[in-house]
Specification:
This protein is an alpha/beta fold and 268 residues long. It is 32% helix and 19% strand.
Amino acid sequence: MSSDAPDLTEAPCDAPVVVSDVATVVRADNAGIMTLDGTNTWILRAPGASRSVVVDPGPDDVAHLDAVLEVAGEVAVVLYTHWHGDHTDAIDTMVARTGAPARACDAAWCRGAEPLADGEVVEIDGLRIEAVHTPGHTADSLCLLVEADGALLTGDTILGRGTTIIAHPDGALGPYLSSLDRIGEVVSSGRATRFYPAHGPVLPDARGVVDFYRAHRLERLDQVRAAVAAGAVTARDVVERVYAEVDESLWPAAERSVEAQLEYLRGE
């Protein structure tokens, strides 16, 4: 995809945006500090096929689900990148409205089907979607590779703008750094050149994004080390030093992220 990839954030909420011959996105009207412009619900379908795959239907909002299903038509399966409510709140409504099974990494977020195994390929009418387990943002986070589209659906593991949170205790930095390495391997292999995130715009430069994310994490980790060396004891102490430039409304989330970093440093 070229640098003129459609900006999903410019379209009105619940208005479909065609991203490729395979992918269409409908953005939910649930913007916020943690959800950016809202949750991107992805509808995937092989060209000419009648059945679709829906990824992260998001909030249990009638207008949003109506818009998603208008695009989706017959839904073969609904996939979830992780358990957070802005992705999963509509899970049972989707089952009721479509009859389609729900699948995720964690069995708690499956309905009528088994959990997605790492490396498993879901094939619907010729469209192949590979599950890539990428824990870190949450323990159950996964990405979905649509190689025919050259795209990796990254959930909240990589966002379309800024960087994601690693919130202790469900989030863990060690696994997250390993997941970035794994995503980097997928990109280096040429199987994915762009990212379809669950929040924010499409990212056409997958390699550059992975490099930025890793550099950012390591830079923050060095800052936390320095804060501890300077006398910071609690996560709040660290946040006041390292995240001083961040809006204080985000400090509670930053504290959870720092807890994950401190846990990582204890294991070094």
